[in-house]
Amino acid sequence: MLQVNPKLHSILIFLFVNLLFSASVVSQTLTSVGKFQPQTKIITLVDTDGDGVPDASDNCPNTSNPTQADYDADMVGDACDKCPNVSNPGQQDSDSDGIGDVCDNCLSKANADQLDSDGDMVGDACDNCPSKANPDQADSDGDIIGNACDNCPNLSNTSQEDSDADLIGSGCDKCPDVANPGQEDSDGDWIGDACDNCRNNANYSQEDSDGDMIGNVCDNCPTIANPDQIDSDMDMIGDACETLGILNQPADNSCFIYLDPLSNTLSIKGKNILKIEVFTNSGERIVQQNTNTNQVSVELAKRAPGIYVVKITSKTGITVKKVLLNKK
Fold first, then answer.
1. What is the tally of structural domains in the chain?
2. CA–CA distance, 78 with 168 (Å, rounded to integer)
3. Which of 21, 69, 107, 228 is most buried per CB count within 10 Å?
4. How confident is the model at residue 306 (pLDDT cuts 50, 70, 90)?
5. What stretches of the chain show up as alpha helix (H) in DSSP?
6. Buried (b) or exposed (e) across 248-268, using 16+ Cβ within 10 A?
7. pLDDT of 264 higher than 60
8. pLDDT of 30 higher than 80
């Protein structure tokens, strides 16, 4: 029968017990005299989060996750992954909001709640139209208000002022004080029909000498207020101006007057015309031309819009006509 050295037997029992209960690593060294001397080295397994998985192999060493779930397989456990559904092993987080860059809907501003009211994948914290979907974030005028919700998309207006509440910003509204969401402008003068005092005649200045809300360029009596524009005889001169009676002389129908509306040049044809005179409505004579011909031109281009009286003296008599200048 094999005899076992009692001392060696004790060493074997010691090693077995240590391996079983303390996860110790035991090494034996042979002494200089040929005898075994036990030497024990204990390695402690660190488990910071106490989830039973040692830190060295834990995919979330600081957050308890005993299941080690890792949905996106990026070696970072779901419990501590800044983007648990999108692989991001580097865990980059530019704005330090706890949401990784690869899944953050607002990279430039911290928004841990990831609120996105309009569902356009751009977080409210950095969305230039948080209430209206615009994933492209287009902003033509650079006023930090996206085109999709900017009431003046081509004119910078960060205040979004809209005096008439027609959803067109005051800065680009053709009628900033009168609601006109359609921005109709029949004469193309950038004054909307809703507030244009001459809808069919371009007049950007909106000049209205008599204050009757009818612009000079289309007023049939620009020097006397007549908002009703009544013109009983349909001669394009309002009744309010017809009664002035300036130089009211018997007419000689042998004379013909034509006013070129573009150049405001009077062309007068008749027989043996001796003199042409032009008067303002107040009676001031502004033109006098002596002649002896059958055709005369009179330039009025530099005169203000209004009613003028033309007196034609010929060998056969005197003719008085009224003309209306619409443009300077």
1. 3
2. 48
3. 107
4. confident
5. 6-21, 239-242
6. eeeebeebebebeeeebebeb
7. yes
8. no
Q: Tell me which H or E stretch contains 280.
A: strand 265-280
**Distance linking the first and last C-alpha atoms of the chain:** 139
Q: Which of these three, 138, 153, 168, is where a domain ends? A: 153
Domain membership flag for residue 105? yes
> Is 235 a domain residue?
no
| Residue at 184 is within a domain | no
DSSP track, 19-71? HHHS--EEEEEE-TTS-EEEEEE------TT-SSS-GGG-SSTTS--TT---T
| pLDDT tens-digit map of 36-63 | 566 777 777 899 999 999 999 999 999 9
Please provide the DSSP assignment of 147-161 as one string: TTT-SSTTS--TT--
Q: Are 150 and 167 in contact (CB under 8 A)?
A: no
Residue with tokens 């060998």: 315
37 in the same domain as 96: no
CA torsion sign for 108, 114, 119, 121 is positive
Task: Please write the tens of the pLDDT for every residue from 219-247.
Answer: 888 888 899 998 877 777 788 876 543 33
Q: What is the CATH number of the domain that holds 296?
A: 2.60.40.3080
- Report the alpha-carbon distance of residue 174 to residue 186 in Å, rounded: 12
| 25 contacts 38 by C-beta, under 8 angstroms | no
Q: Give the C-alpha separation, 221 to 325, whole Å.
A: 10
Q: What is d(CA 125, CA 105) in angstroms, rounded to the nearest whole number? A: 9
Contact indicator for 170, 156 with CB cutoff of 8 Å = no
Banded pLDDT at 18 (limits 50, 70, 90): very low
- pLDDT at position 243 is 52
Beta bridge pairs of residue 277: 288, 311
Residue 162 placed within a domain: no
Q: Tell me which residue range forms the domain holding 147.
A: 92-153
Q: How far apart are CA 37 and CA 7, in angstroms?
A: 10
